[in-house]
Amino acid sequence: MADTHTTRAAAPPRRGAPADPRRGARRRKRLLAVAFVLPALLLLGALVVYPVVFSVGRSLFDASGDRFVGAGNYAEIFRDPATLKAIRNSTIWVVVAPTLLTGLGLVLAVLTEKVRWATAFKLVLFLPMAVSFLAAGIIFRLAYEQDPDRGVLNAVVTEVHDVFEDPAAYPTARAREGQGLTGGAGGPYTTGTAYGPGEAAALGFVGIAPEDMPGGAADAAGEPPPAGELGGVVWLDFAPGGKGTPGEVDPGEKGLPGMTVEAVRDGKAVATATTAADGSFRFTGLDGDGYTYRLPAANFAAPYEGVSWLGPALVTPAIIGAYLWVWTGFAMVLIGAGLASIPRDALEAARMDGASEGQIFRRITVPLLAPVLTVVFVTLVINVMKVFDLVWIIAPGPVQEEADVLATRMWLVSFGGGNDQGLGSALAVLLLLLVVPAMIFNIRRFRRSGA
């Protein structure tokens, strides 16, 4: 039986037939896209991909780059005390700075909605973003100076301190040698001779500049105390022009008013007196003799010079404070933009139901702002992991190691004297591995929000 089905071979395309125009258009579009993307890809490869690949490879070799050490550099990271300190400081940065900035930004964004001059307020807070980290570091390095005459923060601190506690009157004074007073610089000073009623004690001091003398100081009193009383004189044992006899009250020599003097017997202070304008002091109501006089160290205490902001204990918090000054405006503006998109109906409904502003903030505003707060927080985490400028500029050389973070440690190990680019590359790879998860999280968050 003959097969009723016949197979017809597909006719080959004729030579010279016109090509599909749609295929040519698609090809041209692809070539155009490649032409536009290629420069960016080349830059990305040269500036990002190649350095990353090179750093990963370099981290597997020793300092000279000749000997393969595998994971030895990565193990060294966790054996080196200085690097462990940098990891600790980076952890403090990641935990403290983004949390404080996000909280401050949220509070300021909410508060600016309540004032009429919100735009000016936001502008002032955002202005530090226009200042480079280099300039900000120099500003805060000066602000944190220990000397109150240069550091504005310590100038304020010392002024407030002196309001509540009087400074010592004679911080530079020292006893005249060979005049019977024993004690080291800064006091206390004690007489080596015991005194009785009617006997004058002459306690001479030097080392006080004329401009440091109290304005009410009078000529020193040279007469002995009345009969039955103990006392003496405390004076500046230096006559104008260098004249006079050491140990004796000469004309023109001034008393030291406001000096505290203690009468000591059997090792215990039994009475206290304060010198008058002429430097004289008196003790009444004391029986017998055998008293020595002691001038407490409080008379000679060095002036309060404020807080050691850039000392080993406070250098990291101080630098974080400078970072907050720069980035608070950034957090406030981003959170303020999210706050503006919150439906006002929900807030008004809560107020109509009798909710307080605090309840509205905690139960409505913050939950609705959670996506924005998360993005701001993660962005700041990425930023603080890479912080370098402020730490490098603000921290003084002697405490640089106490303030080091991973970025500064990487620089020091590689180029700042360590000359170990193998270990430095390992630190760079570690820093990259710590930053990448936060970047991936932020990218996914942006994609979900744009979907």
From TrEMBL:
Q: Which family does it belong to?
A: Belongs to the binding-protein-dependent transport system permease family.
Please name the Pfam families in this protein's record. Answer: BPD_transp_1 (PF00528)
Residue ranges crossing the lipid bilayer per the database entry:
31-53, 91-111, 123-144, 322-343, 364-382, 422-443
Q: Where is this region: Disordered?
A: 1-24
Q: In what ranges is there compositional bias, type Low complexity? A: 8-19
Q: Which UniProt keywords apply?
A: Cell membrane, Membrane, Transmembrane, Transmembrane helix, Transport
Q: Does the keyword tRNA processing apply?
A: no
Do you know which Gene3D superfamilies this protein is assigned to? MetI-like
The membrane topology of this protein is:
Multi-pass membrane protein
Q: Predominant location of this chain?
A: membrane
Q: What is this protein called?
A: Sugar ABC transporter permease
- Record-annotated ABC transmembrane type-1 domain positions: 87-442
Organism encoding this protein: Streptomyces zhihengii
